[in-house]
Amino acid sequence: MEFEGFTLPDDLYYHEEHSWARLENDGTVTVGMNDFFQKEAGEIVFVDMPEEDDEVEQGEVCGKLQSRKWIGKLCAPLSGAVIELNEELDDDFTRINSDPYGAGWIFKMTASRPEEELANLYHGESVRPWIEAELAKAAEERAKSS
Amino acid sequence: MTGTKEEWRILEDWGRAVPAPEGLAVDDMLAHAVSEKGSPPLLHLYTFEPSAIVGKYQDIRAALKPDRCLDRGVAFNRRSTGGGTVIMGPEVVALGFSISLEDPRMGRGIDGVFRVMSGILLEALGRLGVRAGFRPRNDLEVQGRKLAGLSACAETGNCVLFHASILVDFDVGLMLDIMNTPAEKMTDKGYGCFSRRITTIRAETGRRVTMKEAMEAIRESFADGFGIRWTSSSMTPWERETAARLEEERYRNPEWVFSHRHPRFRMGEALRKTPGGLLQVNLSLANHVIDQVVITGDFFAATEGVQRLESALKWTLAERDRILDAVKQVWTPGLIFGMDPETITEAVLAAGERCVNA
User: pTM to 2 decimals?
Assistant: First the structure.
């Protein structure tokens, strides 16, 4: 879906803290940060990644992302185990900016209870109202401060 | 009306210089107290013992000369918020502040937080007679000279921890002695170059503003800006224990201070002869992103314009199109006499390509 200048692919599931989850055919889940986040954050300077084999809970802060002088959260979109890190990001973390759903993926995981947890994520028709609400809050903020 | 105003808490540690591990640990505790114990927003205003504090993901050995720090009696440590190195001491106001990101008075998202917080601090500076402005990305400046640095992190619950360092007075010589800067090899050796890029409350007001006066202005500006009143507070036993634990586990722990979790830092320089004069660019890269950049030479330009240019380039990906976009964002005809955005871009790119490990 293209919406207000943001790309939010329809096949992904989005956590409210802007991480995304893609369910792969082999049963694993790929995780990254969405286009809304990367546009707001600006150039990503560093990602403090989880470790391979880390067990994470849905919504748990499992890593940090630094952009400019801000450090933000990398939240696990689902519960499960981290099985692979995108080591190529070490060469250039701004891949999260230039290709957030491709080369900018951050880690892969196995999900332990996707059937109950996917419902907690934004997907399909719920994505647009969520992003609309985020944008409305931003507009309200700008109006207050102008 | 005072009685109807919401009460926030302030930890005023004004009578002494606080050791870096203690000050940083108390700042971190603020976010835990707000997030986990339901404390109202908490402000910590204080001064450090002389200390060089690097950002969470900086390479401390690339940023500082630890041996010179020790020789000069300057402690060094790593804070939990982002950004670059700050030199703290008895004439620099240290500010830690934590608030829920859901508080309607707080700006939304990254830009919102910096907009609201810079507004509060600019108002405080105005009360002292300093007309400063917000310089994207995250500094307060007076005509291109940096007077305060801001940084933040949002790692604890739904709270933001905001840090600021505000220069009441500053020792540029000390900074250059203990820091590794891209200016090391510059023809315009260090002091003059950096003293033109930094200013202080005392320099701007032309009077000896006291630390107490500066901190009172900040305290009052917060109260008016957020429409609250302060309760002067001391730490609860839980807060004291939490701060003590963070101090021990984090800020007195060499594994934290010398952490290897950071991007690769490198430094480089480029010299260009141009119709407008000699152009020298010195920069440091954090991976492929510009961390610091200093533009000097024997060209004609207003200091303010050059510093805007440097600020625009900071945190920009070191690729031609991105650099050119950043330069064009702030470029005005004659910003550097006899040069154009393409010339600047080529020099920045060349400095980036010549970067070697810091």
Answer: 0.88
Residue of B nearest to A135 (CA): B108
In degrees and rounded to multiples of 5, residue B74 shows phi and psi of: -110, 120
**Chain A neighbors of B317, CB-CB under 8 A:** 43, 94, 97
| B122 inside 8 A of chain A by CB | no
Q: A4-11 long-range contacts, Cβ below 8 Å, gap at least 24?
A: A4/A131, A4/A135, A5/A39, A6/A34, A6/A35, A6/A36, A6/A39, A6/A131, A7/A35, A7/A101, A8/A34, A8/A35, A8/A36, A8/A127, A8/A131, A9/A101, A10/A124, A10/A127
Domain positions in chain A = 2-141
Residues of A in contact with B82 (CB under 8 A): 45, 66-71
**Positions of CATH 3.30.930.10 in chain B:** 2-257
Q: Is the pLDDT of residue B191 over 80?
A: no
B315 vs A61, A68, A145: nearest CB: A68
Q: Which two tokens stand for residue B354?
A: 């010549």
* CATH T-level assignment (fold) for domain A2-141: OB fold (Dihydrolipoamide Acetyltransferase, E2P) (2.40.50)
Question: Which pLDDT score, from 0 to 100, does residue B313 have?
Answer: 93
Q: Is there a contact between B263 and A91 if contact means CB atoms under 8 Å apart?
A: no
CATH architecture of the domain B265-357 equals 2-Layer Sandwich (3.30)
Give the distance from residue A56's alpha carbon to the nearest chain B alpha carbon, in angstroms. 16
pLDDT of B3 higher than 70: no
Residue A125: how many other CB atoms lie within 10 Å: 9
Cβ separation of A137 and B115 shorter than 8 Å? no
Q: Hey, which of A88-102, B169-183, B287-301 has the most confident mean pLDDT?
A: A88-102
- To 5 degrees, how large is the angle CA A74–CA A75–CA A79? 140
> What pLDDT score does B1 carry?
46
Task: Name the residue with higher pLDDT: B100 or A91.
Answer: B100
Contact B315 A45 (CB under 8 A): yes
Our CA dihedral for B24, B7, B154, B125, rounded to 10 degrees, sits at -70
Taking only the tens place, the pLDDT of each residue in B15-52 is 899 999 999 999 999 999 999 999 999 999 999 999 99
pLDDT for the residue B193? 72
Q: What is the mean pLDDT of residues B54-70?
A: 93
Please list, residue by residue across A4-28, b when 16 or more beta carbons sit within 10 angstroms of its beta carbon and e when fewer do: eebebeeebbbbebbbbbbbeeeeb
- In CATH, what class is B2-257? alpha beta
Asked if A71 lies within 8 A of B109 by C-beta distance, the reply is no
User: Which residue from A70, A71, A138 is facing B108, i.e. has the nearest CB?
Assistant: A138
Residues 55-84 of chain A with CB under 8 A from chain B are 61, 64, 66-73
Chain A residues whose CB is inside 8 A of the B137 CB are 42, 68-69
| Nearest residue, CB atoms, B110 vs list A48, A64, A70 | A70
